[in-house]
Amino acid sequence: MSQVKFFPEVKEHRLANGLLVLVGEIHTLPMISYQVHFAAGSRYEKPGITGMTHLFEHMMFKGTYRVKPEEFARIIQAHGGTLNAFTTTDNTSYYENLPADKLELAVELEADRLANLQLTSATLEPEREVVRSERKLRSVNSPFGLLIEQLFALAYEQHPYRWPVIGWDHDLKNLTLDDCREYYRTHYAPNNAVVVVIGDVFAEDVFNLVEKHYALISRQPSAHLTITPEKPQRGEKRAIYKKVSQVAAFFAAFHIPGIAHPDLIPLHILCTVLSSGRSSIFFQKFEKPGKAVETQADMGSPPFFYMDPGLLQIYAIASPSFPLEKLEKEIWEEVEALCRGSLPVDTLLKAKKQVRSAFLQNLQTHFFRGLLAGLYQVRAGDHRFLDQILSRYESVTAEEVLRVAQKYLRPENRTVVSLQPVNQAEHEELGAIE
Amino acid sequence: MNPKPDPRTFSLPPIFSTTRNGMKIYVVPRSELPLVSVHLVLPHGAETDPTGKAGLADLTAEMLTLGTRKRSGPQIASEVDSLGASLSAHAGWDATSIHIQGLKEDLDHLLELLREVILDPAFSEEEFSQLQRRRLAMLAQQKDESQIVAAERFEEILFRETPYDHPVYGTLKSLPLLSREETQDFYQRRFLPEGSFWVFVGDLDAEACFGQVETKFPVVPPRPIHIPSFKPQEVSGVKTILIDRPDLTQSQIRLGHLGIPHAHPDYIPFEVMNYILGGGGFSSRLMQKIRVELGLTYGIRSSLDSRKNLGPFAVATFTPTETTFSCVQEILSVMKSFRLQGASKQEEEEAIHFLRGSYPMRFETLNQIAQRIIQTEVHGIGIEFLEDYPGKIAAVQGADILRCAQEHVDSENLIITIVGRAKAFSHDFERFGPVEVWE
After folding, report:
1. N or C end of chain A: smaller count of CB under 10 Å?
2. Shortest Cα distance from A146 to chain B (angstroms)?
3. A357 to B102: CB separation less than 8 angstroms, yes or no
4. pLDDT at A419 over 60
5. Are residues B186 and B139 in the same domain?
């Protein structure tokens, strides 16, 4: 019986080819979420092919011998389903949320594109431009996108988290069909994937259908990958980024451990104390009096913690009337005061209740429940991590929160990138952005 | 295998309703998770902002959450957070909603907080000036968000000189003109009028909720607030407004015209029609042509924002600076040919299957359920709309789709708003008609 009272028991089955299947039965709505999570993310890339993982996610919609390009989505939608996919540093995930009686359709289509994807330059070329447009949307033309790219590139010197999931534009322009084929062969194997089904199904039926459609897909040799770990940071790193902007801002990052490390839970409580809700330290001290437009301490939440040692980000967008340097100084003073002082019992209890409540709010959808099981499996190596999540948060003590605050929020472990607004002429003089 | 009722059929969750103290109350019990969500909805929103006072309704709503005569703003924030709850109050178009959600174990406390913020707000001078400053700072930052700028300018032009002509949260020009006294006065004149209603969803009991409203809230006076209906001027010809942002490498595009109200008899066939034109993701013609075939954008969709009066119907997309004009040309050509041909039998069937088959997913979370009910009540289309929807969708015919496209979609009379490097394409757009370039 799962310790997370509101999560169904996860039943599992492994096929001979290595594919793992996880099923959670919930019979409240006649719907399911069918998800396939691959251990494929930008952490598996090399310089020169950055963005390959994400571009490849797009190529998975480009058809097989049976299904024409972009027909996948049309078929699922024509059966009452919604679908999408997303790529992160650590996983690539595909999902269909659809009527429960359409389970076999999802199994069949997902198995088909895992085995029979057709990769052609006719479909690659327009998709390359689509992804370059996506890069412009998310990074180049978004107010803080390029700043965050610079933050990661500076905080990490060796580990692949130093480049963005969407990839550098130059690499996107140069990725080849052979790169796509190589990526497909290496990462899209049944022994590198987890299928998760949550909703109005019975586990035995799911296992039988997955066996029927996936059993003949061959296991692939595991990829020989070297992912260079990051060395401990030994002093603060700083950079300035200049662009046209209405506001000044800074984005800071502290190295923290990966998803399976026990310190993440008290660190998440720490972030909650700093910036969750209108009674948080950051809102009361900086946003309420109008010093900052926004101030956040953010490290993701379950199951979106980084697989390898990640970053806890603290960022602030200064109000036009308040100097950025002063805002940054005051924020570090608050953080230091928290590290040095004690954490009142009611502040800790409040943070715990906020986390518990947010977690329960998320559990309302089959989709999120599926992500929890699938991403803990891919990123932490075991979906059963989620059994302990709520009790782990419950058991956090004030001492633990202070210990992790002192351990990780040190200036030596900090990287800061500041956005310095410039006018159009200076913006142009600094060179093209892409 | 455990015996269970047929799992494959969807039926709406039971909706209990009554009227107490002159207010309608809807309750939808859902006991899967120990959560509750409560909305009080007032039958007017940002369209009641006085001329030149854009943002007053929304600012007034938020002031409610920033302190009562018993509890200060920080005290309310601290209590809400300590319950792991969230409290918000916002004006939209045609409605204003005060919402609290949290855990079932705290329901009494949540309702007490809600009662106090609704009936006894303090309107403190300090909270007001801080809120005003926060909003001005947020709006200054928002000028960097080209998507938001494109959407705002599009509606500003489409609804010029009507009550929908401004953003609900106000503008950099209007916010400094608002005073604390005005928000308090707006509250006294506008809050809890006839037509206000409640929606409770979650792990709760209907009778108990009815009783809570009856004992905690006053009887509303049978005095409706009169909100005049209005009709914005139809667009004639193509007008292009370019908002110049020379630092951008990609243009944000919004183009369209007036749509239809939710209560319009064509609302249902319009939904099917729009799925095929641009609302249906990869099944839509716009996505197929502009993204899949031409690779001009990462995303494109057309949508109707249905309101009590005529709301906007718009196509939204973005494309690199160099392809801005050709992208718009292609969009217009897709719209034009759709108006001529209508939908194929396959498109029609697939749209209907999608809208019917995915309908249960619109009732997955407490807030989705609440929004479905709020929508029917605000637009006066009756709660039975929710039950009837799948059947009405199924009844849509090819001829209805063609008629809807011809009557309600127009590729020759519309407004085009683009945020981007104007110099690179302003000349091209002169082919369509007048072009204005804004700073």
Report:
1. N
2. 13
3. yes
4. yes
5. yes
